[in-house]
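Below is how a single chain appears once it has passed through the pipeline. First comes the sequence as given, then the structure the pipeline wrote out for it. We keep one example in the README because the format questions we get most often are answered faster by looking than by reading.
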Amino acid sequence: MKYKVGIIGATGYAGVELVRLLLMHPQAEIAAISSVSYKGKKISEVYPALAQIYDAVLEDEQSTIEKSDVVFASLPHGLSENIAWQCAKNEKIFIDLGADFRLHSEEEYTQWYENRYQFHELHEKAIYALPELNGEEIKNKTIIANPGCYPTSAALALVPAIVQGLIDNNTIIIDSKSGVSGAGRAMTQATHFPECNEAFAPYKTATHRHTPEIEQTLSHYAKQKVYVTFVPHLLPINRGILTTAYASLTADKSLEEIHGIYEDFYKDAQFVRIMPIGETSNVKYVRYSNYCNISLHKDERTGRIVIVSAIDNMVKGAAGQAIQNMNIVLGIAQQAGLDYIPPCI
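Resulting structure:
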């Protein structure tokens, strides 16, 4: 059996990444794709890499919903709730790659996104879905909030240490670097080639919208409110996120013991790879894949742990994780359509 899937916002970077991955999915068939900007055009006219592989014409949102069992939305915040409502009314599974269902608190959503919830009952049904942390809770849900890219890399790096009480939760600093694709397809001065090439700088320092999402997840597993210092940077590369998290240790554990705790925590998580002691995570070795590589380092002099996680922001940070969530909801193998091996060079 093949499930019919639709993609709304298919011409954005995350949207076309969904297309790329779903075309290789053994149990999914793309039923329709939509775009406001390019409606009526073939997607291969927008992305020539798809020529003679997938030449589907871009439709409107309504027809995409009608033709699909599962609907993915890859849209700016504020545009997903109406689509979710239509999907709920027609008993479709809805997976949102945007921010509209990520935050539990409407007050925080208003503060950080300057918007309000329209359908409160949908938020009560939605689940924030990070498979390696709450995979069992995702099953049988029909409104899925796909985590952000930075929050995915941060949560996977820090949650095992928080759950095991290894760190002082008041000392967490998260330093993240993202490839330019994380800014989306729309041109800005910061992502213009002459501006970002051979450049490297932080942006939205301590004010990035992913901050409350990171704190929400860490607070949930800490069972108390956790505040972090989060600073993102723009790397002059196409794709990838490298997150380096720092925190003071509370337990007198050796690096070998901490490494064992992480290996045990993720023993059933096929897309998380705990690197051997002495190795360091690198975005190069997760490109185009759904893997998260985590390396652990201990500063013996200061008693701090340094955790480095690497993901592909377009895959594990967006489209790949969305498909992984779909697989869980549908009860099929998590790796279906995601068994891409990262390039070795």
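The chain has two domains: 3-125, 150-312.

See the next section for the split statistics.
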